[in-house]
Amino acid sequence: MAKVSVYNMEGKEIDTIELSDEVFGAKINEHLVHMAVVQQLANNRQGTQKAKTRAEVSGGGRKPWKQKGTGHARQGSIRAPQWKGGGVVFAPVPRDYSFKINKKEKRAALKAALTDKVQGEKLIVLDELKLDEAKTRNFLRIMKNLNVTKGLVVTQEADHNVFLSARNLPDIQTAMVNTINVYDILKAQVLVVTKDAVRKIEEVYA
């Protein structure tokens, strides 16, 4: 089992904690990690792009000039793709980009992402994270104590003050144990997890 330090909100090391090898020491399967990231990004796409084909644009019902004898190239409609105001060739239409991967694959990818943070020494375990009021400067002070400028903060359960205090910080994201995902973990330079959240992650994903 890997051992990591536990820090308080002042940034001082106060204890150590052993991490479960089943979750934080798993085998890193790059293919599964890549597939999980692609799935999340695909599922986040709105897929609402739309352009009109020549069948959908208005006008163009009459042949602009006769077939022969004008000196012009033959044309059947002023809404053909080569005309200004014409339809778009192979126009994009609304579609659903989402796809599914197996639960076991998604879980293995998440364990791999967590293991990568541990191996890269980018995991900080926080003894507790409690704020008396929703103040960004108070939350930012804690992050500075931990030397975190860009990262993901994971708590065991929803904390109104923590989430409100962090939402104005563009480089800091917050999440609960049941909402963490591979993409956010990999994107974060540092993963800050409360001690309770670590135990919950081990319980849920073991």
Describe the structure.
The protein has two domains: 2-46 and 98-205, Ribosomal Protein L4, Chain: A (3-Layer(aba) Sandwich); 50-93, no CATH class. With 206 residues, it is an alpha/beta fold. The mean pLDDT is 93. Strands 2-1-3-6-4-5 form a six-stranded mixed sheet, with helices on both faces. It has helices spanning 21-24, 30-44, 103-119, 136-145, 160-166, 182-187, 195-205, and strands spanning 2-7, 13-19, 123-126, 151-155, 172-176, 190-194. The chain is elongated. The two termini are 14 Å apart. Helix 2 crosses helix 3 (103-119) and helix 4 packs across helix 5. A hairpin with a 5-residue loop joins strand 1 (2-7) and strand 2.
Named CATH topology of the largest domain: Ribosomal Protein L4, Chain: A
**CATH architectural name of the largest domain:** 3-Layer(aba) Sandwich
The CATH superfamily of the largest domain turns out to be: Ribosomal protein L4/L1
H/E series: EEHHHEHEHEHEH
Largest sheet, described in full? Answer: 6 strands, mixed
* Overall morphology: elongated
Quantity of strands, as a count: 6
Output the CATH class name of the largest domain. Alpha Beta
From the alpha carbons, calculate the radius of gyration and give it in angstroms.
27 Å
End-to-end separation in angstroms reads 14 Å
